[in-house]
């Protein structure tokens, strides 16, 4: 059955998208997860993955063509399937008169069936990919409840991704008929998020068609054996494990199970997709006889003498922490790191910063000075401003510097774009704005994409020196320590000096020791004579 794919809203300000490149052509087979096309938005070019399987029957625009959000992007179905009814309906909705790419003759009954199926799938909302690294989202909150009227542009839910919490706007109109997860629960990208349509729609048919779980076999719990004997011998029971691996249960069911001491792996769920709900836990009755006998045996064992109490807390890994772990592990074990450390005399930088901030109108930080000096040094050493791409190395002519910002859940790296063209005051304003947005979880995907180099500064936390893991796709990252007053020799005399240590982590596949050293020499000269940065 043919399914319509509309142009998705891939950023909060996107109104239209440009087809940068089709990865599939009409007639090609498409599997779930295949990249259909590259879509150029107002902020980035993103890959659009298919959440359907079949044959590509129609494309809404050629390479370079523009489509408004919610315009017909593609149709996927069975090879040779008639899409005229489906195409006509979508075309009429958007006032489009273009002919479909494939058309065959069908009976009125087939046309009616196709129209019914397309209508059902037109009501489905899948979990969108809201960032380039997102694989699943957490429902932070629902802004619409089942039974509420939904209009285009209404906020359906707040979705927590690996990097931020974003509002999800509806591109459909109707009544919210179904929610794929409760607040606080996770949904994989392209899994069923919700259904919007007319009251009375048969949502079970839609859910089964989308999830394809109608063939799942149910597993029953074996009934415990009973005995009339009055002896205290243990009674053998046969209990079947119903849920192997991850257990899907509602938060309320989990809470009740914890209070009752019920192990959810033995409880059969009656909810959607085998999900365990409150009624399943209430109805579950473990073997009381087996429990009694176990207790009798246990009482014969002497309790150990203990002092103190063992305790701990376990919290689920956040989306952000998952991606941090994945990306940095890949970087550390894939890229051969080496490290170059240099001490920099910051006396002149300290004096220059005092003069720059004297009027009280501006507030330049030492991190701003480091960022400005780094941008100038990258201009002179383009090999450091590069990326390893497997069979080629990309030398970036633009300079986009990522600035690591610590938040409660982990680390975000918003990007200061074209940093070499910005003044110190412009850099200071951008970094301050990004830091606040990161803490408020208001950063957008466009804010953290496109870095060519990264700076991580822990000097404000009293850290004198450290090494950082390279932030892909960069070839290098600069770890900046704090400024410490230490004895230094100047003109043959020992005096107090302000010294800052920096460590450059380099991907040896791209940057050699001499290249990294030359970059640090330039950075050192700029910070030790900050007036040179003003030229």
Describe the protein in words.
The protein is about 25% helix and about 25% strand. It has about 525 residues and is an alpha+beta fold. It has three domains: about 5-210, OB fold (Dihydrolipoamide Acetyltransferase, E2P) (Beta Barrel); about 240-285, E3-binding domain (Dihydrolipoamide Transferase, Irregular), CATH 4.10.320.10; about 320-535, Chloramphenicol acetyltransferase-like domain (Chloramphenicol Acetyltransferase). Mean pLDDT is about 80; it is low at about 95-120, about 215-235 and about 285-300.
SSE layout:
Blueprint: E1 3-6, E2 16-22, E3 29-30, E4 35-40, E5 45-49, E6 54-59, E7 66-68, E8 72-77, H1 84-94, H2 108-122, E9 124-126, E10 136-142, E11 149-150, E12 155-160, E13 165-169, E14 174-179, E15 186-188, E16 192-197, H3 203-211, H4 251-260, H5 278-283, H6 288-298, H7 319-334, E17 337-345, H8 347-356, H9 366-380, E18 386-388, E19 393-395, E20 401-403, E21 405-407, E22 410-412, E23 415-416, H10 424-439, E24 453-457, E25 476-490, E26 493-507, H11 513-528
Helix pairs in contact: 1-2, 9-10, 9-11
Distinctive features:
535 residues; alpha+beta; OB fold (Dihydrolipoamide Acetyltransferase, E2P); Dihydrolipoamide Transferase; Chloramphenicol Acetyltransferase; four-stranded antiparallel sheet; 11 helices; 26 strands
């Amino acid at each position: 059955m043919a399914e319509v794919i509309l142009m998705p809203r891939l950023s909060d300000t996107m109104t239209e998208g440009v087809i940068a490149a089709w990865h599939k052509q009409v007639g090609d087979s498409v599997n779930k997860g295949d990249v259909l096309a590259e879509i150029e938005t107002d902020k980035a070019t993103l890959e659009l993955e298919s959440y359907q399987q079949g044959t590509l029957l129609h494309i809404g625009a050629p390479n370079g063509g523009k489509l408004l959000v919610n315009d017909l992007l593609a149709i996927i179905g069975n090879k040779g399937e008639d899409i005229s009814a489906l195409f006509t309906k979508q075309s009429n909705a958007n006032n489009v008169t273009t002919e479909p790419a494939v058309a065959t003759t069908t009976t009125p009954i087939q046309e009616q069936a196709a129209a019914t199926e397309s209508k059902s799938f037109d009501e489905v909302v899948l979990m969108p990919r809201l960032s380039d690294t997102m694989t699943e989202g957490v429902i932070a909150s629902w802004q619409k409840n089942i039974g509420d009227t939904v209009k285009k542009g209404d906020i359906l839910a707040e979705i927590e991704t690996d990097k931020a919490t974003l509002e999800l706007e509806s591109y459909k109109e109707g009544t919210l008929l179904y929610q794929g997860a409760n607040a606080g629960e996770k949904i994989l990208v392209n899994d069923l998020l919700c259904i919007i349509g007319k009251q009375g729609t048969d949502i079970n048919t839609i859910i089964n068609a989308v999830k394809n779980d109608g063939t799942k076999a149910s597993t029953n719990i074996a009934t415990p054996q009973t005995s009339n004997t009055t002896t205290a011998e243990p009674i053998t029971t046969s209990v079947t494990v119903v849920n192997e691996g991850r257990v899907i249960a509602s938060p309320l069911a989990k809470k009740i199970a914890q209070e009752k001491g019920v192990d959810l792996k033995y409880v059969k769920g009656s909810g959607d997709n085998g999900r365990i709900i409150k009624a399943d836990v209430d109805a579950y009755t473990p073997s009381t006889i087996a429990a009694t006998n176990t207790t009798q045996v246990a009482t014969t064992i002497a309790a150990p003498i203990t002092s103190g109490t063992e305790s701990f807390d376990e919290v689920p890994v956040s989306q952000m922490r998952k991606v941090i772990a994945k990306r940095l592990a890949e970087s550390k074990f894939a890229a051969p790191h080496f490290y170059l450390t240099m001490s920099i005399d910051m006396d002149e930088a300290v004096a220059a910063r005092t003069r720059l901030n004297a009027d009280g109108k501006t507030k330049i930080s030492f991190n701003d000075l480091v960022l400005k000096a780094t941008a100038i040094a990258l201009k002179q050493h383009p090999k450091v401003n590069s990326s390893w791409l497997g069979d080629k190395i990309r030398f970036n002519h633009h300079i986009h510097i990522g600035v690591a910002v610590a938040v409660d859940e982990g680390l975000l790296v918003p990007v200061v774009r074209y940093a070499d063209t910005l003044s110190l005051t412009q850099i200071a304003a951008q970094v301050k704005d990004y830091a606040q947005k990161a803490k408020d979880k208001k950063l957008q995907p466009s804010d953290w994409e496109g870095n060519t180099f990264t700076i991580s500064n822990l000097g404000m936390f009293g850290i004198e020196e450290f090494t950082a893991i390279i932030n892909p796709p960069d070839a290098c990252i600069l770890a900046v320590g704090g400024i410490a007053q230490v004895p230094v020799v100047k003109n043959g005399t020992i005096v107090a000096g302000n010294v800052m240590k920096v460590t450059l982590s380099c991907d040896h596949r791209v940057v050699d020791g001499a290249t990294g050293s030359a970059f640090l020499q330039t950075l050192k000269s700029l910070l030790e004579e900050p007036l040179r940065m003003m030229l």
